[in-house]
C-alpha cells in the first residue's frame, strides 16, 4: 500500500520551509501523548518513522513525510503540556492557523484523540478550525484497547454526537495501535481523500 512508502522529508519550523504547495497532503494533529506518532507509524507500517518525543522544541515542528511524487503526510505539532509557555502556544496557533488556512494541497486533517479522554479543548479547537475553514476531519479515537467493548461503543457514539455540532461532516472511528485495530479503516479514509 501507498503508506508503506512513507519517507521522512524534512521538519519545518516555519511555513516557508515546507515543500512547494502542489499535489495533495493530509495532516495529523493531536494533543501531546494522544498517540499520534504511534498511529502514524502503524498506518505507514514503519516503526520509528514518526519519532515519539516529548520535548517542547520538537513539538513546534511540522514534519513532512513523502508518499510519492505528489502525496505527503504532515505531522503537525501538538500541545497539551502545562509547561509550554504562552509565547510558544501563540506561535503554535499562528503556524497551525496559517498552515490550515493557507495550504492549498491540504486535503484534510486526521485528529488523534485518546479514546479515554475525547474532545479536550485542543480537539474542540481543531474541529472548529476545520468547520470554519471547510476542511475535512477524521478522528481516530485511539488506545481503544484500554476500553471494554461496551465503553468503546459508548465513547464512539457520544463522541460522534458531540462532533456533529462542533464540525458537521467530520467522522470518527475507534483505533488501536497496540491491538492493531482500525488501521485499514483509517487508510481507506485517507486514500479516499487523496483520490478525490
Ligand atoms: P504522541 O505524543 O501523540 O505522538 O503520542 P505517542 O505516539 O508517543 O504515544 C504516547 C503514549 O501512548 C506512548 O507511551 C505509547 O506507547 C502509548 N500508545 C500509543 N498508542 C497506543 C495504543 O493504541 N494503545 C495503548 N495502550 N497505548 C498506546
Number of strands: 7
Per CATH, the class reads: Alpha Beta
Q: What is Rg?
A: 16 Å
Read across the widest sheet, the strand sequence of neighbours is: 1-3-4-2-5-6-7
Q: Largest sheet, if any?
A: 7 strands, mixed
In short:
With 196 residues, this protein is α/β, with parallel strands linked by helices. The chain is 35% helix and 22% strand.
List the helices and strands and how they pair.
Blueprint: E1 7-12, E2 24-30, H1 36-43, E3 62-66, E4 71-75, H2 86-102, E5 106-114, H3 121-133, E6 136-142, H4 149-166, E7 171-174, H5 183-195
Parallel strand pairs: 2-4, 2-5, 5-6, 6-7
Antiparallel strand pairs: 1-3, 3-4
The structure holds guanosine-5'-diphosphate (GDP).
Report on the structure:
- This protein has helices at 36-43, 86-102, 121-133, 149-166, 183-195, and strands at 7-12, 24-30, 62-66, 71-75, 106-114, 136-142, 171-174.
- A seven-stranded mixed sheet has the order 1-3-4-2-5-6-7, sandwiched between helices.
- The chain contains five helices and seven strands; from the N terminus they run ββαββαβαβαβα.
- The longest helix is centred in the last third of the chain and has 18 residues, at 149-166.
- The chain has 196 residues and is an alpha/beta fold.
- 34% of the residues are buried.
- It has a single domain (2-195), classed as 3-Layer(aba) Sandwich (Rossmann fold), CATH 3.40.50.300.
- The chain binds guanosine-5'-diphosphate.
- Guanosine-5'-diphosphate binds at residues 30, 32-38, 52, 78, 142-143, 145-146, 176-178.
Amino acid at each position: 500500500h501507498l503508506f508503506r512508502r512513507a519517507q521522512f522529508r524534512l521538519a519545518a519550523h516555519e511555513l516557508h520551509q515546507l515543500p512547494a504547495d502542489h499535489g495533495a497532503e493530509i495532516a495529523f494533529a493531536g494533543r501531546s501523548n494522544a498517540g499520534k506518532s504511534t498511529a502514524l507509524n502503524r498506518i505507514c507500517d514503519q516503526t520509528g518513522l514518526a519519532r515519539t518525543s516529548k520535548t517542547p522544541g520538537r513539538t513546534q515542528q511540522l514534519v513532512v513525510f513523502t508518499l510519492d511524487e505528489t502525496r505527503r503526510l504532515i505531522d503537525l505539532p501538538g500541545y497539551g503540556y502545562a509547561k509550554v509557555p504562552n509565547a510558544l502556544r501563540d506561535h503554535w496557533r499562528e503556524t497551525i492557523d496559517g498552515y490550515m488556512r493557507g495550504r492549498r494541497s491540504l486535503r484534510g486533517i486526521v485528529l488523534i484523540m485518546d479514546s479515554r479522554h475525547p474532545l479536550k479543548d485542543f480537539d474542540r479547537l481543531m474541529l472548529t478550525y476545520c468547520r470554519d475553514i471547510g476542511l475535512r476531519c477524521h478522528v481516530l479515537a485511539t488506545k481503544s484497547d484500554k476500553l471494554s467493548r461496551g465503553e468503546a461503543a459508548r465513547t464512539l457514539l457520544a463522541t460522534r454526537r458531540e462532533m456533529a455540532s462542533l464540525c458537521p461532516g467530520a467522522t470518527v472511528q475507534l483505533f488501536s495501535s497496540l491491538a492493531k485495530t482500525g488501521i485499514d479503516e483509517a487508510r481507506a479514509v485517507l486514500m479516499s481523500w487523496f483520490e478525490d
